[in-house]
Amino acid sequence: MDGGGAQRWSAVADEWAASWGRVAAPVWGPMLTAAGVGPGTRVLDVGCGTGELLAHLGALGARGWGVDPAPAMRARAALVPGADVRDGDADRLPFGGSSMDVVVAVNALQFAEDTFGALDEVTRVLVPGGAVAVANWAEGARNDLDVVERAVARAQDDDPLPDGELRAPGGLAAVLAEAGLRPVASGIAPTPWHAADDDRLVRGLLLGEDPATVERLAPVVVAAARPFRTAAGGYVLRNAFRWVVARTPGGSPDPA
Ligand SMILES: C[S@@+](CC[C@H](N)C(=O)[O-])C[C@H]1O[C@@H](n2cnc3c(N)ncnc32)[C@H](O)[C@@H]1O
């Protein structure tokens, strides 16, 4: 899925949860620790998808809110005990000013219509000195997924999608700084993706494609993923996410 249309995301909610819902889980711990999330912290998850991070926040004792424009994504996220999930998007957050301590966006900020407008919204809902934590796929060269996506693009006579500034090394921090936020921590985490067999591989990698396209491209996906096949007949694609935590102006200074 490269587009951000709410109806397209809604149509793939179940498959998203099955294939991808926890792929970024390795960044949650370091990123939330750097953002100071703990019991009672008010955290908004922008583009919360099917709610796996909201469930993790609940386990930490934090208070979680989610926002997502896709109804079926929201319906799943709303099942997370204690989570308050609302219709909205990164450019239009349905929350009052200074109502959150931390805002997170995992694999979602790239779908904002206007990245800087969205970061203004994030700044508005955060308390002074609040933290925004953003995580995105690292650049393609670090991701086995890129190998398969390039093969699929070639098979369709498309150009592979460029990485974009949110994926390049240093790019995320630069965008946050340009938005008037102060980057305070960053990292990169391995986020391997597992598929149990050819069927799961194809369903995950051709997420959102129509049945005829899936049938045509399935052999391309299986061939391109050959180097990542395990002895057991499944697949492990080694990938990575980068994350950055930045703070809004104001608030108390960081401890020395
Ligand atoms: C790649 S999924 C990531 C979901 C979740 N954050 C995760 O890590 O599993 C992207 C999510 O962003 C949502 N989305 C699409 N456009 C958006 C926008 N403009 N603002 C916020 N979220 C958006 C989609 O509905 C989808 O749930």
TrEMBL record:
Residues 44-133 form the Methyltransferase type domain. Pfam families: Methyltransf_11 (PF08241). This is Methyltransferase type 11 domain-containing protein. PANTHER family: TRANS-ACONITATE 2-METHYLTRANSFERASE-RELATED (PTHR43861). It comes from the Bacteria. CDD domains: AdoMet_MTases (cd02440). InterPro entries: Methyltransf_11, SAM-dependent_MTases_sf. The lineage of its organism: Bacteria, Bacillati, Actinomycetota, Actinomycetes, Micrococcales. SUPFAM superfamilies: S-adenosyl-L-methionine-dependent methyltransferases (SSF53335).
